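We were asked to recover a plausible sequence for a given structure. The inputs and outputs are reproduced exactly as logged, with field labels preserved.

PROBLEM: sequence recovery
POSITIONS: 303
GIVEN STRUCTURE:
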């Protein structure tokens, strides 16, 4: 079949998703579309291009040579369409009923969400925000930042596109107040190595800063508990001999009933900066510029 002309423009987004994911189920989840519907779309695209696009290799799919050439062209076309659509939109927050999408960690939400929502209620009561969790795989951030309005993630997390810093924080060591190794609120290097640790395995970051510093200092710590975010760690530590390094702003919000203490440890300060990230095709979107300003105000308010 000839490849002249273009497919239905409504198929470009699922085409990009299928070629990037190389898996119909994951592409369907990304677009909130059923797997049978994605199979029907793939069949239409195969007929249009006269190419398989995806072919099975064992239990996985691989791109055909034509599909590898097609993917960057599809991505570029959708980026141009996004820039055009953003330019054409006027935005008045007081009258808008727009829904924005923000991808962020639960930690970032605990710091920012109250101030964001308070400000929206004051100046944009019709605006809605859908918050989504950060992707578990770091490689997923590229298409996620393109398809959503904003992503809040560490400044050095390697998120592609543009960014603005929002606020900074540093890690502190949490211990149960009754931990027998605590002496006047202090823990030694030996205590850090001999006591069990609970850690956050945040796979969207190449490497957690605290882990990197401990490795550079030659500290060999035993990990007994792994969580997928920092938020559960205070509850894991409470009533145990476990230690956990968490952002100071999170430690500050711990309920007194957890009976935790921030221990003084012989480590240099480990700081990080959370930032708002967005794809370049959003650059002319006045609504997004306004939303970035709201997040920056919230970041300044937390100090």
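RECOVERED SEQUENCE:
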């Amino acid at each position: 079949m000839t490849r002249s002309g273009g497919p239905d423009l409504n198929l470009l987004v699922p085409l990009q998703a299928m070629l990037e994911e190389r898996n119909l189920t994951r592409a369907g989840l990304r677009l909130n579309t059923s797997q049978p519907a994605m199979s029907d779309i793939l069949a239409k695209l195969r007929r249009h291009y006269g190419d398989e696009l995806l072919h099975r290799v064992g239990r996985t799919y691989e791109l055909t040579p034509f599909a590898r050439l097609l993917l960057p062209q599809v991505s570029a076309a959708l980026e141009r369409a996004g820039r055009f659509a953003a330019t054409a939109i006027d935005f008045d927050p007081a009258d808008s009923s727009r829904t924005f999408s923000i991808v962020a960690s639960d930690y970032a939400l605990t710091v920012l969400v109250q101030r964001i929502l308070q400000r929206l209620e004051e100046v944009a009561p019709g605006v809605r925000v859908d918050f989504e969790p950060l992707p578990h795989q770091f490689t997923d951030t590229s298409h996620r930042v393109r398809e959503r309005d904003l992503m809040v993630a560490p400044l050095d997390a390697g998120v592609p596109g543009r960014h603005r810093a929002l606020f900074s924080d540093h890690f502190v060591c949490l211990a149960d107040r009754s931990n027998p190794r605590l002496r006047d609120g202090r823990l030694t290097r030996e205590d850090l190595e001999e006591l069990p640790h609970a850690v956050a395995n945040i796979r969207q970051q190449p490497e957690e800063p605290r882990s990197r510093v401990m490795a550079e200092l030659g500290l060999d710590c035993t990990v007994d508990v792994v969580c997928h975010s920092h938020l559960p760690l205070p509850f894991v530590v409470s009533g145990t001999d476990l230690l956990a390094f968490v952002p100071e702003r999170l430690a500050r919000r711990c309920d007194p009933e957890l009976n935790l203490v921030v221990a003084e440890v012989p480590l240099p300060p480990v700081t990080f900066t959370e930032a708002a990230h967005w794809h370049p095709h959003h650059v002319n979107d006045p609504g997004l510029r306004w939303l970035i300003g709201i997040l920056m105000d919230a970041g300044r308010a937390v100090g």
